[in-house]
Fold this sequence. Notes:
Helix content of chain B: under 10%
CATH architecture of the largest domain in chain A: Sandwich
Distance between the termini of chain B: 20 Å
Strand content of chain A: over 45%
CATH topology of the largest domain in chain A: Jelly Rolls
Number of helices of chain A: 1
Oligomer: heterodimer
Structural class of chain A: mainly beta
CATH architecture of chain B: Beta Barrel
Strand order of the largest sheet of chain A: 2-1-5-6-9-17-12-15
CATH class of chain B: Mainly Beta
Helix content of chain A: under 10%
Shape of chain B: globular
Order of helices and strands of chain A: EEEEHEEEEEEEEEEEEE
Largest sheet of chain B: 5 strands, antiparallel
Largest sheet of chain A: 8 strands, antiparallel
Number of strands of chain A: 17
Amino acid sequence: MAAVSARYTRILVDQFDFSGDSNRVIMAGTVATLDTTGFQAVTSTSIPGNLQGASIQHGGYYAGADAGELEYELKQRLGSATPAYIAALFGTNQAACPAYVCDTSWGQQLTVDAPIDGLITLSGNWPAGGGMKRGLRIQAGASTLSGTGGGTAYDFGAAGAAGGTGYLFVQTITGTATGATIDIESSATEGGTYASEGTFTFSAVGVQTLTMSGVVNQWLRINTTSLGGATSFAVVCIACVAGVTQ
Amino acid sequence: MAPKKVAGNVTVSYGGNALTGYLNTASMQAVVEAIDTTDFLDTANNTSIPGNASWSVNVGGPWDVTLDGYLGPEMVAPGASADATLVVGIDTISYTWTSATDVGAFLTNYTIDASNPSAGIMWSGTIGASGTPVRA
């Protein structure tokens, strides 16, 4: 029987992991139906159009007014032109769980509910302004990186031929990072030779993106190539391979 | 004639992947458009004739990573045509849209719902069917 507990869900809002303050995450998207029915047809025919209205709905608990708390960060992004990156990860009991990323998002809604006999709760909606991407998690934030070298490789099931997108959610940095670099690498086999598909370069918390092009092999991993002077950092990396995960 | 229960008697296959093990609800609809033919002489009742039929299948149930691998990629990167074969089995009969010109199916809606940390992750979707199914 297929079933996954909802406790294995994570919600990332830029560098913030609000999983502990959240109790509702809904990812939804609708593909347009384009009617192709012609004369003489007795049954309607159609083809798929674009993905429309994709979004991540998000709700949780009010836990304080400070920066870094859910209410503050929702308000900061409400209607903001500064791109936000929102990731919903489902089935996080698996290392390479699926992740949906609202690329170039913004806060579309902020609702504060205050029932007389309940908790103060918050809800918001994140539209996928730059499109919804689907990838697999290849690095979890719980595993702090404190040295250079390749991480665990994950099987994507197939190679892609048309590149893809990588997202790096830099959540914490211990010490000071100046030009720290992490690559996404791919290989045809788990124990084979890994080649770089692109490099994230960062000096602060936040979200970095990279574009992969051409062939992306079946096994992917991150490779920390420079700590940039930092002692360690915690990152979540999501790799989206065209024709494979999306 | 004995009524048939759902469990064990309903199957859905989409794009060659069995969805049955991820379902706790399924609803297949055929809606024939009613073309209004009422005119000024119809003084008591409106009149109509049948137009085209449109088919769709609403599905949902417990979410799983394997299921997401079937549906998620198609949602974020829709194809250019209704090119998936859809088979809905009901007891001893089946409705089949075999992928061909103007016939086939595609995902039109997909939702993953993790709205209670103490419950399971659920999903729902709508599969739009293009063309006439074969009932066998």
